[in-house]
Amino acid sequence: MNNTTNYGTDNSYLAEEQEKNPSVFQTQDVNSKRVFEDPFLCAQFLRDYFGLDELKDVQPEDIENVNLRYHLFDEAELNSDSVVRVKFPARDAETPPLYVVPLIDHKSSVDYNVSIQLFYYIACIWKDWEKEMKNRYGLDCRAKAFRYPFILPIVYYEGKDNWTADCRLSHRVCMSDKWPQYVPDFQYHVVRIHDYTDQELLEKKNEMSLLMVLNKIQKPGDLQSLQHLVVQEVDAIMKESPDSVMDIIVGTVTSLCRKLNVPEKETDDYISKIRKERRMGYLFENMEKMDIQLERRLRKEAEEKAEEKVKE
Q1: What pLDDT score was predicted for residue 29?
Q2: 297: left (phi > 0), else alpha (psi -120 to 50), else beta?
Q3: What 3-state class would DSSP assign to 159?
Q4: Cβ neighbours of 99 (radius 10 Å)
Q5: Which pTM does this prediction carry?
Q6: Distance CA 95, CA 52 (A)
Q7: CA-to-CA separations, 192 to 212, 224, 268, in angstroms, rounded
Q8: pLDDT at 298
Q9: Distance, CA of 310 to CA of 261 (rounded, Å)
């Protein structure tokens, strides 16, 4: 494989490919949302990548997928990537269950206004909580004892560039350092998949980490890293995966193949092996030829641009 092709910066490459193949990137985004809507995968993510002792033993049955659209403001429809509830046992029969509400927002590029977006989501979730507690338990939010659920604002970031946005809400507000007592504030947590090596991810030995490895692939050159993975370790992860999780893995690989312009027949072969045999080895063994058509096209485009500059 020729690795000397100049693809430009990672973000520019993604932007160009997204413009040429919008349906592929839309599929990728949908797959990312499905990941966190799946209790099995979401439980793995919260256990392994957030670092809270209270979540270290969370199981799929503890997670409720809320997945709501909120209409708190007439001018804005707020729809986060994933809103789930992690349920803790009720303290007694008369008390509503305690919830931690992870709010997971998926990003493929740095968004400097994400703290404000998350603030909107949090307000909407709490507003919905007021209605639910009133309808289900007859609780009044104006009562002294009324409490809102704790919300974990999380940004799941797949981009290669460093996350340079400030994680504190108050830092987006003028004069907040002078009058901090009047400014609402929180800090969101960023999980950047490129902070982990492929081997570090696969040491978790679960499906969520395997998907994170696949989602790190953003350009043809990234395929090389997969050639060094131990096929048996990857295949062992998928051996007992629930069918719903296998559907997500298949969707992720399909999106990857389309993004890399893999011929449809070859894509079908890869998917068949993964779905029927629960084996990823066939995919890794053919990495070297997967991107050949895309690489040739990009090289041709680079040569054409060089010729245009010479003419100028």
Answers
A1: 47
A2: alpha
A3: coil
A4: 17
A5: 0.77
A6: 24
A7: 10, 20, 31
A8: 67
A9: 30
pLDDT digits (tens, 9 = 90+) for 157-192: 988 899 999 999 999 999 999 999 999 999 999 999
The count of other CB atoms within 10 Å of the CB of residue 288 is 12
**Ordered alpha helix ranges (H), 220-291:** 223-226, 231-238, 243-259, 264-277, 281-285, 287-290
Query: Which 3 state secondary structure label does DSSP give 84?
Result: strand
Residue with tokens 């604002």: 153
Contact between 124 and 69 under an 8 Å Cβ cutoff? The reply is no
Instruction: Output Rg (C-alpha) for the chain, integer angstroms.
Output: 22
Low-confidence stretches of the chain (pLDDT < 70) are 1-32, 67-81, 89-98, 219-221, 224, 227, 281-282, 284-298, 311-312
Name the H helices within 96-196.
114-137
Output b/e per residue, 171-192; b: 16+ Cβ within 10 A.
Answer: ebbeebeeeeeebeeeebbbbb
Per-residue pLDDT tens over the stretch 24-34: 444 444 466 78
